[in-house]
Amino acid sequence: MSDILEITGLSKSFGRKKILNGFNLSIEKGTVYCLLGKNGAGKTTLFRMIMGVIPPDAGNVLFRGNMLSYGDSRHKKEIGFIAEDSIYYGWMTVRRHLRFHAAFFPQWDAAKAEAYRRQLGLEDNLRIRNLSRGMKLKLGMITALAASPELLILDDPTSGLDVPTRRTFFRDILGGILDSGTSILFGTHMVHEIEDITQRTGILHQGRLVVQEEAADLKRTVMRVRFTCDTPEAVNRELHGILTSQRRDRRYETVIHPWNKQRRAELQVLKAYDLETEPLNLEEIFLSFIADDGPPTVEGTEPCC
């Protein structure tokens, strides 16, 4: 399966602040790629560079094998973008807004736009200046989806929506998008919302993609491992892939990636015993990869790494 989007060596700074640093990412056609990152990690900056809104300092973005550049609007007919802070003409009504955008997209589906409008409960005679933030997000969804894009970029699309609308989006709307074969790049920090839909997952931290794997493989290869070791001074030297770790006396609780035969062999070298393993959910995996300020501690424990 070919990549619909390929990003290599992408870097961006604002003043002295480095936002992205040699960032790489690839998305296969027809897949759901979820990019996880804390608020301020650089997800929105990345998406705006893909859309040609801001220029990168270095690196390349390829869409269907074609180079995208700053200010190039040709590809926008084929890429839908649902942003947190879209700009609208406040004097337009919802109906006028949708008709206005229909002129820019050859694949615009007016029937789909009307169906989504009704499904999301957005009245067509309301002026945009009178819409709440959540209602504007609904309008952004309708606009992006009615254009029938090949690639849909979602930037925390449900952060301002009420619970019933979120449920409608994930259960009904997103399901229909997936059935159509549209590729999706979903950026969020709300990990619990995407755990059931992600096919490939990347974690953005400190400007780089620290991991990028099939979601099922990531859950299989990140493991919470508990063990007892009588030579604690050797643990950091002999055991690799530790993301987080705590120690109470000789008892360790670690999160390890990748968990495999080699890690087991390393524990055997350490003569570790009372070994226990426990799989993690995606939110726990995400928190483990971004815990770079040292492993979390609780009263009565001390970090070992």
Overall description:
The protein is an alpha/beta fold. The protein contains ten helices and 14 strands. α2 packs parallel to α4 (133-146). The longest helix has 17 residues, at 163-179. The chain is elongated. It starts with a strand and ends in a 16-residue tail after the last helix. 34% of the residues are buried. The model is unreliable at 293-305 (pLDDT under 50).
Describe, in short, the structure shown.
This protein is α/β, with parallel strands linked by helices and about 300 residues long.
CATH 2nd-level architecture of the largest domain = 3-Layer(aba) Sandwich
Biggest β-sheet strands, sense, barrel: 6 strands, mixed
User: Rough shape?
Assistant: elongated
Give the rounded overall mean pLDDT: 88
